[in-house]
TrEMBL record:
<feature type="compositionally biased region" description="Polar residues">
    <location>
        <begin position="22"/>
        <end position="33"/>
    </location>
</feature>
<keyword id="KW-0449">Lipoprotein</keyword>
<feature type="region of interest" description="Disordered">
    <location>
        <begin position="22"/>
        <end position="45"/>
    </location>
</feature>
<protein>
    <submittedName>
        <fullName>Lipoprotein</fullName>
    </submittedName>
</protein>
Length: 253
């Protein structure tokens, strides 16, 4: 898995007013704003939302005595993201929500538009943490039919009762994509998209194992899940979309 200003100067044309030195000042209405002025507003909003997410991340890190956290929201850079973080230093749950305004951490005004969650669970030992992850070794699927997913990745397919699965392993990660024939959700498109993203975004290296469980055709139920072990801790990131889940997980540090 690999990771991978515009300055515009606008001048008013004097020929439109006969080069008069007594021309009136241009209106400050929205319609008469220069393109440079309008374009300068987008970067400003982007910077504001990015800084807000960074600030929330630092507050959460301090509140819970340091933990791995996404440095990217996984959303468009102009999208406002807020957060609610609860728990203790050993057991933490963070809910990321979409809002119209930047709000303080754990604000009671947070919207219910949660698009991703992150949990950290601490176990007594690293062995117990590893056992809590449903890792699927390559040997368990080696005899199943093959499917080419690109980038030299070969998946294995299995189906039954109207359900389809494509699974493969990369490094310490096992990946599975669940599709449904009943709902016409073919898992191959999601599997290929995931493989393409893994070429651009590097997931964290698990202590021993990690799993990626994706659901084709589902973009609203936090059903895209990435789980991995770090010592005696297990991190589980859930998101509405595959792209968001992978981008957030890859930025965790």
């Amino acid at each position: 898995m690999k990771l991978s200003k515009i300055t515009v100067v606008a001048t008013l044309a004097l020929i439109l007013t006969g080069c008069s030195t007594n021309q009136s000042k241009p209106s400050k209405s929205y319609q008469n704003e220069s393109k440079a002025e309008l374009n300068s507003k987008a970067p400003s909003k982007t910077l504001k939302t990015t800084n807000h997410f960074t600030s929330l991340t630092k507050q959460i890190d301090s509140k819970f005595n340091h933990m791995l956290l996404p440095q990217l929201s996984g959303m468009p850079t102009n999208q406002i993201v807020n957060a609610k973080a609860t728990g203790t230093a050993k057991h933490v749950k963070i809910a990321y929500s979409l809002d119209k305004n930047n709000l303080p951490l754990n604000s009671p005004k947070l919207s219910n538009k949660i698009y991703a969650t992150l949990t950290k669970t601490t176990y007594g030992t690293s062995t117990a943490a590893k056992q809590a992850i449903s890792f699927q070794p390559a040997s368990s699927i080696s005899g199943l039919p093959k499917i080419n997913l690109g980038h030299s990745i070969t998946g294995r397919t299995q189906s039954g009762a109207g359900q389809e699965y494509i699974s493969w392993n990369e490094g310490r990660w096992s990946v599975s994509v669940h599709g449904s024939r009943v709902n016409n959700n073919n898992p191959k498109g999601t599997a290929v998209a995931a493989v393409n993203m893994f070429e651009k975004y590097s997931l964290p290296v698990p202590e021993t194992v990690g799993t990626v469980a994706l659901f084709a055709g589902d973009s609203t139920n936090l059903s895209q899940t990435i789980t991995f072990q770090k010592g005696n801790q297990v991190y589980t990131l859930k998101a509405n979309t595959v792209g968001t889940a992978i981008k957030m997980a890859a930025s965790m540090k």
